[in-house]
Design goal:
- This protein is mainly β and 283 residues long.
- The chain has a single domain, classed as Beta Barrel (Porin).
- 3% of the residues lie in helices and 65% in strands.
- It is globular and about 55 Å long.
- The two termini are 32 Å apart.
- One of its GO terms (molecular function) is voltage-gated monoatomic anion channel activity.
- This is Mitochondrial outer membrane protein porin.
- One of its GO terms (cellular component) is mitochondrial outer membrane.
C-alpha cells in the first residue's frame, strides 16, 4: 500500500489532536448532497472568547467516471477559492490538481499547481506556488512491508534557497506504528507511537524536541476508548499540565455531537480553561 509523506505518523497525530470538542469554540457543520451528486457543506465556528463567527460555504462535484472533482469555497473573510482535481485520467496513479484563491478586498491572489503519483509501495508529490516565491515543494514516501521512509523539501525559485527539508522514518502494522521525524532544517526532532491495545482501546504518545528552544522535551500522551452505540471518549495530557477531554456520540444516522475541553491542571482555580462543542449534521 502506498502512502504520502504526511501519512507517516498520522495515526498518532490524529489520536492526539482530533475529537476533543473544539476547545474554546462552538462549531456547527452541515453536509447535504443534491440528486445530481453535488455536495454542499456549510461550517460555522464561534470563538467563545472573542465572540466572532467564522464560516465557509463549500460546494463539491465529482465525476468518478472521468476522475474529475470540482470544489468551490467562499468564506466570511471574503476568500473565494476553487480547486480542480483530475485523477487517473492521464495515467493510472497520477492525480493533477490546480488550486486558485482570490481575496478581492485585499487585491491578493493565490495559485498552486500540483501533481501526485502513486504506485504500489511508493508515492511522490510535487507542487508549485505560483505567486508566493514562486516556491516549489516536493516529497516522496516509501512503504515496503510496513517499513516507512520519507523526504520533504521546499525550494524558493526567486532566491535559489532551500526553505525546508524534513525527514521521516518508521514502522507500521495494523496493531501499532512507531515513527520519527526530523524537521525545520534539522532543528526539530519528534518520535510518535500509536498502539491499538485492544478492540476498544487505542493509545498514542509523542515526544518533541526543538534544539533551538533548549533542553526541554515536550511530551503528549492520549487514549481513545470506544463505547457502545458509536460513541467514544478521549483523554490526553502533556508535560505542561494541560488535560484534554473529549466525548463523541452519534445521536442518530447523520447527527454527531462532540463535546470536550482543555484544562490547565497547574492553574485549576484560574479562568484559563477552555470548553467547546462540535455538531455535525449530514443528509
Amino acid at each position: 500500500m502506498s502512502i504520502v509523506f504526511s501519512d507517516i505518523g498520522k495515526a498518532a497525530a490524529d489520536l492526539l489532536s482530533k475529537d476533543f470538542g473544539n476547545p474554546g469554540a462552538i462549531k456547527v457543520e452541515t453536509k447535504t448532497t443534491a440528486a445530481n451528486g453535488v455536495n454542499f457543506t456549510v461550517a460555522a465556528n464561534r470563538d467563545n472568547k472573542a465572540g466572532g463567527v467564522a464560516a465557509e460555504l463549500k460546494t463539491k462535484y465529482a465525476d468518478k467516471s472521468k476522475g474529475l472533482t470540482l470544489t468551490e469555497t467562499w468564506t466570511t473573510a471574503n476568500v473565494l477559492s476553487g480547486e480542480i482535481e483530475l485523477a487517473d485520467a492521464l495515467t493510472k496513479g497520477l492525480k493533477v490538481t490546480v488550486l486558485g484563491a482570490l481575496m478581492p478586498h485585499a487585491n491578493q491572489k493565490h495559485a498552486k499547481i500540483g501533481a501526485e503519483f502513486r504506485q504500489p509501495g511508493v508515492a511522490t508529490r510535487a507542487a508549485l506556488d505560483v505567486f508566493k516565491g514562486p516556491i516549489a515543494t516536493a516529497d516522496i514516501a516509501i512503504n515496503q512491508n510496513g517499513i516507512l521512509a520519507g523526504l520533504e523539501t521546499a525550494y524558493d525559485v526567486s532566491t535559489g534557497a532551500t526553505t525546508k527539508y524534513n525527514l521521516a522514518v518508521g514502522m507500521a502494522t495494523s496493531e501499532y506504528a512507531v515513527t520519527a521525524h526530523v524537521g525545520n532544517k534539522l532543528d526539530t526532532y519528534a518520535v510518535a507511537i500509536y498502539h491499538k491495545v485492544a478492540k476498544h482501546l487505542e493509545t498514542a504518545a509523542r515526544a518533541t524536541w526543538d534544539r533551538k528552544a533548549g533542553a526541554t522535551v515536550n511530551m503528549d500522551v492520549a487514549a481513545k476508548y470506544h463505547l457502545d452505540g458509536g460513541a467514544f471518549a478521549k483523554v490526553k495530557f502533556n508535560n505542561a499540565g494541560v488535560l484534554g477531554l473529549g466525548y463523541t456520540q452519534v445521536l442518530r444516522p447523520g447527527v454527531k455531537v462532540t463535546v470536550g475541553g482543555a484544562f490547565d491542571t497547574t492553574r485549576l482555580s484560574e479562568n484559563v480553561h477552555k470548553v467547546g462543542a462540535a455538531f455535525v449534521f449530514e443528509a
